[in-house]
Design goal:
Layout: H1 22-39, H2 44-52, H3 57-63, H4 68-71, H5 77-82, H6 88-92, H7 94-115, H8 122-150, H9 154-186, H10 188-200, H11 202-208, H12 219-254, H13 264-287, H14 293-296, H15 301-310, H16 313-324, H17 326-342, H18 346-371, H19 377-399, H20 405-433, H21 439-450, H22 452-459, H23 461-483, H24 488-491
Helix pairs in contact: 1-8, 1-9, 1-10, 2-17, 3-23, 7-8, 7-10, 7-11, 7-12, 8-12, 8-21, 9-10, 9-18, 9-20, 13-15, 13-22, 16-21, 17-19, 17-22, 17-23, 18-20, 19-20, 19-23, 20-21
Length: 502
């Protein structure tokens, strides 16, 4: 029997692009905007805020591990496929209900970060940054699952992904540049409050949309009960996160991890564990019949399905996706502190991250969205890796130039074009690997694993820079992006098993 949900690992380009769904593009542009606004606030902007308060570079690097939350989203993604948010789901449906809860979580977390903007207690700063990352990721999981359900083919995915990333990157630029400019003028608290208000704007738009059964009389009761349930969920989530965070910090202190510790060898060792675990489990997974409990399990069935379909080729796929965005992730947290150390002001960095970054990023995303409807994925992925590497090498070039805002624009534009192009191609590629039977869980797993190794290493970025310097760090990150190209001939030959679960 054939599996209707098993695309080739590298799909051929469609014969003719389908008609563009403009309403879908507008919707996913909005959802991308909602998810993109908070991202810089717990990554790049937070790194500069900590630097301004005299926090050591190694500790700033540790804060990059907050970005591990998106890589671990497969842990709670099955809950979004299985359960609905009380109140909201009754009128808006499961996917939109989760999006609305996530929007409330994003707003509350960013307001909390604004009220603690002096960073007098780094554990408190870390708590609210983790909550912001968690709810941002939850919004993305729900939106991605809905996208894969609505647009399952490569030619449909291209324009929708482009629109989603246009919204996402527009929001990242608005948050990044806007927050830095506001911080330079009025302080970090005002910057975070302003972005929190902007991030909340999509909520009333989602609330005003038609319900899945179009019963307008149920709208206000659904909003009221959904909001009350959301407040309870947010409070329980914050308490649980605080308890887990206290335990992690206690264990880290006991292990001697501090600003002077060399954590790189430990991080590399941890990075190998997922590959070893997958290799050990694959023989049993490949032998599992359709009615095996591990294939029907609500908790692990979606992930077992991926390895059952691809077998040992899944290890090649996972190694490739771990490397593909490596350069961009490594550069994200430390590029702005490096630029600040070169002598550029927050306002100069903010201006570079505004129009220049936005235009370059949107051109990259748009070009990628167009090319994936016409090129084989192999060639699109190869070009994405190349332009991403060039963007990283641009920081090395900038470090050797005199301080000049125009040169900063050139380096920023190259970085954002490469980041946008590679990101759009990568989203389409990962979407094609997903079995539509489990869209939320499998896409969350793939995107989470794709950024696990880069973000683990990013947390050790401060200690790596201390050892080899900024120039060699960005040379290394660019070369790692290029290494992904070596995998493409093998990926082009990978095909999944096609037996269908009964």
């Amino acid at each position: 029997m054939t599996d209707h949900a098993a695309p080739a690992a590298i799909a051929e380009p469609p014969a003719s692009p389908s008609r563009v769904d403009r309403r879908g593009m507008a919707l996913y542009g909005l959802l991308g905007f909602a998810a993109g606004l908070p991202f810089y606030m717990f990554s790049t902007v937070l790194a500069l805020r900590l630097q301004a308060h005299g926090v050591a570079l190694a500790v700033i690097g540790f804060f990059a591990w907050v970005q591990l939350l998106p890589t671990l989203k497969f842990v709670w993604a099955p809950l979004l496929d299985r359960y609905a948010v009380p109140g909201f789901a009754r009128f808006y449906g499961k996917r939109r209900g989760w999006m609305m809860l996530a929007q409330l979580g994003i707003f509350a977390s960013m307001v909390a970060m604004a009220l603690t903007a002096e960073d007098a207690s780094l554990p408190v700063t870390a708590l609210f940054a983790v909550l912001l990352a968690f709810w941002t990721t939850t919004l993305e999981v729900a939106a991605d699952a809905w996208r894969i359900e609505l647009y399952p083919t490569q030619d449909e995915q291209g324009p929708i992904v482009a629109a989603n990333l246009w919204g996402y990157r527009s929001a990242m630029v608005a948050a990044g540049s806007g927050a830095l400019l506001l911080a330079d003028w009025s302080g970090w608290s005002i910057a975070y409050l302003a972005i929190a208000a902007a991030a909340f704007l999509p909520f009333p738009i989602l609330a005003a949309m038609r319900g899945h059964e179009d019963r307008d009389a149920q709208r206000l009761p659904a909003l009221a009960t959904g909001t009350v349930a959301s407040v309870f969920i947010l409070l329980v989530g914050a308490a649980a996160t605080a308890a887990i965070g206290w335990l992690v910090l206690t264990l880290a202190a006991g292990a001697g991890i501090d600003a002077g510790a060399n954590v790189t060898p430990w991080v590399l060792g941890i990075c190998m564990l997922p590959f070893l675990a997958m290799a050990a489990a694959l023989p049993r997974i490949r032998r599992a019949p359709a009615d095996a409990p591990i294939r029907r399990s609500a908790a692990i069935g979606p992930y077992v399905d991926f390895f059952w379909r691809y077998g040992f080729a899944a290890l090649v796929l996972m190694a490739f996706v771990s490397l593909y965005r490596m350069g961009d992730v490594l550069a994200l947290n430390l590029s702005k502190p490096m630029i600040k150390d070169l002598g550029y002001s927050l306002s100069q960095i903010g201006r570079a991250d505004s129009v220049v970054a936005l235009v370059a990023s949107m051109v990259g995303v748009g070009l990628a969205g167009w090319l994936v409807t016409r090129w084989a994925m192999t060639w699109a992925l190869a070009l994405g890796a190349l332009v991403a590497a060039i963007g990283n090498f641009g920081f090395v070039w900038l470090a050797g130039q005199p301080v000049d805002e125009g040169l900063l624009y050139v380096a920023t534009g190259a970085d954002q074009f490469g980041n946008g192009f590679a990101g759009a191609v990568f989203v389409v590629y990962l979407s094609l690997l997903v079995n539509p039977r489990y869209p939320g869980a499998q896409y969350a797993f793939l995107t989470g694993f794709a950024f696990l190794l880069p973000r683990l290493l990013s947390g050790a970025g401060g200690t790596i820079v201390r050892a080899i310097g900024y120039d060699d760090f960005f040379l290394l990150s660019g070369v790692l992006s290029l290494v992904a190209i070596v995998f493409l001939p093998a990926l082009a030959r990978i095909r999944p098993r096609t037996e269908e679960l009964e």
